[in-house]
Amino acid sequence: MIGPTLSQYLVFSALLFCFGLYGMLTRRNLIAMLMSVELILNAAALNFVAFHHFLYEGDVGGAVFPVFIIAVAAAESAIALAIIIALFRHKNQLDVQDADSLKN
Question: In terms of residue numbers, what domain contains 44?
Fold first, then answer.
């Protein structure tokens, strides 16, 4: 039995990226926008892994970039959630239109 091809991985990654981009452009809730950014980063990580798997079979070096992407995504999520919590405590809502005024 043959596994998925590179083009199938790339189509799936493109779908993830499009769903993430659609979520970023249409959502007004900050948490939903954060989840959309995570979908975009996962699509990029999937591309790295798929290309490395099909170009350099057996080498573990292709797992380095997705680990960095996961680390950056975790740091970004922690900082974004801290900002979202501060905004919610200040405004009692998570609307993007009101996110520009944390200074009051």
Answer: 6-98
Task: Give me the number of domains the chain comprises.
Answer: 1
Reduce the DSSP state of residue 99 to 3 states and report it.
coil
Report the CATH number that the domain containing residue 31 is assigned in CATH: 1.10.287.3510
Would you tell me how many other CB atoms lie within 10 Å of the CB of residue 94? Answer: 17
Mean of the pLDDT values across residues 15-30?
A: 91
- Would you call 26 exposed, middle or buried from its count of C-beta atoms within 10 A (0-12, 13-18, 19+)? exposed
Q: For the whole prediction, is pTM greater than 0.70?
A: yes
Give the span between the Cα atoms of 87 and 4, in whole angstroms.
44
User: What is d(CA 96, CA 34) in angstroms, rounded to the nearest whole number?
Assistant: 12
Residue 104 domain-assigned (yes or no): no
Mean pLDDT of 11-25: 95
